[in-house]
Amino acid sequence: MTLLESRIAPLGTPTVPGPPPAGGPIDPAIRADVDKYRQQYARFLAGELSDEVFRVYRLTNGIYGQRQGGTNQMVRVKVPYGSIQPEQLEMIGWLVDTYSRGWGHITTRQNIQFHFVQLDQIPEVLEHLAAVGLTTREACGDTVRNVQGCHLAGACPHEELDVTPWAEATYRHFVRNPISQRLPRKFKINFSGCETDCGQAMFNDVGVIGVTRPADDGTVERGFRVFIAGGLGTTPHPALALEDFTPREELLPTIEACLRVFDQAGNRDNKLRARMKWLVDTLGFEEVQRRVLTQRKFLVASTSWPGGIPAEVQIDGDDPAGAGDPATVTAVGHGTPVTIGTGSAYERWERINVVRGVRDGTVSVYAQAHLGDITGDQFRALAALQRELDADVRLTNRQNVVFRGLHPDDLATVYDRLDAIGMARPGAELARDVVACPGSDTCNLAVTQSRGLGGAIGERLEEEGLAEVGGIRINISGCPNSCGQHHASDIGFFGAERRAHGRSAPGYQMLLGGYIGQQQMHFGDKALRLPARNAPEATARVIRRFVDERQASEGFRDWMERAGGARAVAEGLKDLDEFPAYEDDPSFYVDFDETGPYTVETGASECAT
Predict the structure, then answer these.
(1) Which segments within 386-517 are labelled E, that is strand?
(2) What digits encode the pLDDT tens for the residues 497-515?
(3) How many helices (H) and strands (E) does the chain have?
(4) Are 11 and 102 in contact (CB under 8 A)?
(5) Can you tell me the distance from the alpha carbon of 283 to that of 263, in angstroms, rounded to the nearest whole number?
(6) Alpha carbon 111 to chain centroid distance?
(7) For 61-89, how does the pLDDT look when each residue is reduced to its tens digit (9 = 90+)?
(8) How much is the pLDDT for 10?
(9) Count of CA atoms in the C-beta half-sphere (13 A) of 314
(10) Nearby residues of 294 by Cβ (< 8 Å), 6 or more positions away
(11) 237-248 core/surface letters (b: 16 or more CB in 10 A; e: else)
(12) pLDDT at 606
């Protein structure tokens, strides 16, 4: 068994489930959602709701159809800013064993989703999720999607303020809010506590970054810088600063004003040009800015005015975690140079997967989920560890799990527990920590098996001794739509059909030099197209060259520009853009994780409806 196979072997072999974990009293709002879903589903079965109307309703409640068709559904569970409790981890573990295929998937937006749930089982699944305070409400559809936040918020030595209660307040303000139910298109909000931007605020409809400014009385005022109209997809746009500084009491009105402008002016005739980013192209940034600030000014007259400091912030506070001993502060963020070095497996893990330096002396630990996949048994083990340590746990936008607020004396225990379930590899933010969307495994738009390529790249880097190169991010999407965020990574790939020797074959476009941080967004530049089978070799060559040529503390994008740019780096890869004849090597005409010849089978994607 290969190293890769040993890591993913548990997938597809679910534990035989027993009774569901015990739940608690159900939130009345979630109860109402579940009851209404049952009613609407009954109406659909009775022919009282058309397929089109029920599809829109189903999507608003986080239920997607899959490429397999029929009654196969994906369930996307909303996890605001990635914060999750042990009983919720346990329940998801039971659900993936009972209704899915034995594993769930962390998304790049800090949701958890699982597949192959049958349509008639959805009401039961929603009921079980509700028992532990989880909802799928507005996880999909033309709504305000899951509100994201930096996974280290409240536990990061670099933050200007703790964005956790602000993300919670924003989630609570917009979920089920009438103004966010039938938008022109989906609307995404993200929070980061400092300009390192681990939350990735710079490519969202609204991105919020914690900042400070000198006050008139000589003190320092904490607040925000709000960026708007960012997005990825086939045409990426960097977010633009709305104003230099937004006071804390003005934050929620500012976000609502952005949403109202989008609702009023967004393109309802063409969903391909309906996102907030297209308003800037059609109206111009100055006009969008003027409308948002005007809306905010008069929003005080609205019954929904959310001005002032939200109750969540007043109760929990938003003071930054603060830095302790400067000598122990762990550097974080995209492009951070990382050196694992030698030593025992535990020493190497502690060196890279532990974040230190918080004022109260606690530490945070990354548990790596290979390609974002977690089995039912792993969910339960994570829940048990969270309870044992009374830890705060967050899901990350790079598809991992972070345990926060740990005492340094607990690290050996944490390592042993994670190692026992295959989640203690020193991987967070290293080359081996590949991010991938579900790809053509389940998505109607995907043309390639992005998860299969992710596994193959990881295995190749292990073989070449390059898996522990630090400061490099690799992201893969199965189509140009960037659900795998390929534009925002050092090495990105998106799937594309290729034609060679009269046959269809799986291929990828390679991008180089994507970067996010310091209130900047650089999208990856196109390098070259490749057969899917050669993408792992191309990745290894680029990383090997980076390792050999980089200067001290030099980041990937700086090295790439010094080397002449993406096209110049691609010159050393041109021999890889060749397909052998089918008779000479048929593997080039079969996608990763597939057994038969490659074919393109796309359909109308429900994420575009």
Answers:
(1) 392-395, 401-406, 435-436, 474-477, 491-500, 503-512, 515-517
(2) 999 999 999 999 999 999 9
(3) 17, 23
(4) yes
(5) 14
(6) 7
(7) 999 999 888 899 999 999 999 999 999 99
(8) 44
(9) 5
(10) none
(11) bbbbbbeeebeb
(12) 72
Side chain identity, residue 536: P
Query: Could you give the CA distance from residue 223 to residue 246 in angstroms, rounded to a whole number?
Result: 6
* pLDDT for 3: 30
Strand order in the sheet with 373-375: 63-65, 72-77, 112-118, 103-106, 373-375
Count of alpha carbons within 13 angstroms of residue 550, beta-carbon side: 21
Predicted pLDDT of residue 8: 36
Q: Residue 134 above 50 pLDDT?
A: yes
CB atoms within 10 A of CB 575: 8
Q: What is the DSSP string of 465-495?
A: T-TT-BS--EEEESSTT-TT-GGGSSEEEEE
DSSP per residue, 20-52? PPP--PPPHHHHHHHHHHHHHHHHHHTTSS-HH
Beta bridge partners of 175: none
| pLDDT tens readout for residues 367-421 | 999 999 999 999 999 999 999 999 999 999 999 999 999 999 999 999 999 999 9
Q: 236-246, pLDDT tens digit by residue?
A: 999 999 999 99
Q: Residue 4 burial (CB < 10 Å; 0-12/13-18/19+)?
A: middle
Under 8 Å between Cβ of 38 and 121: no
Instruction: List the beta strands (DSSP E) in 482-588.
Output: 491-500, 503-512, 515-517, 520-522, 525-531
Q: pLDDT tens-digit profile of 525-579? A: 999 999 999 999 999 999 999 999 999 889 999 999 999 999 999 999 999 999 9
DSSP structure string for 7-20: HHTTTT-PPPP-SP
Instruction: Evaluate whether 253 touches 299 at the Cβ level (below 8 Å).
Output: yes
What token pair was written down for 349?
A: 């893990």
Q: What is the pLDDT of residue 9?
A: 38
Kindly give the pairing relationship between strand 354-355 and strand 363-367. Answer: antiparallel
Q: How confident is the model at residue 604 (pLDDT cuts 50, 70, 90)?
A: low
8 Å CB contact between 52 and 428: no
Residue 546 belongs to what H/E stretch?
helix 535-549
- Between CA 349 and CA 343 the distance in angstroms is 10
Please report how the helices 51-60 and 28-45 are oriented relative to each other, as an axis angle in degrees rounded to 10: 160
Cβ contacts of 288 within 8 Å, gap of 6 or more: 228, 229, 261, 279, 280
- DSSP output for 262-319: HHHHS-SS-GGG-SHHHHHHHH-HHHHHHHHHHHHHHGGGSTT---SS-HHHHHH---
What token pair was written down for 147? Answer: 């509100």
The chain-wide mean pLDDT, for the chain, equals 93
Q: Which residue has the tokens 């010159």?
A: 571
Distances (CA, A) of 446 to 117, 450, 480, 497, 607: 20, 8, 8, 10, 12
**Side-chain-facing half-sphere of 543: CA atoms under 13 Å:** 28
Q: Is the pLDDT of residue 609 over 70?
A: no
d(CA 242, CA 276): 13
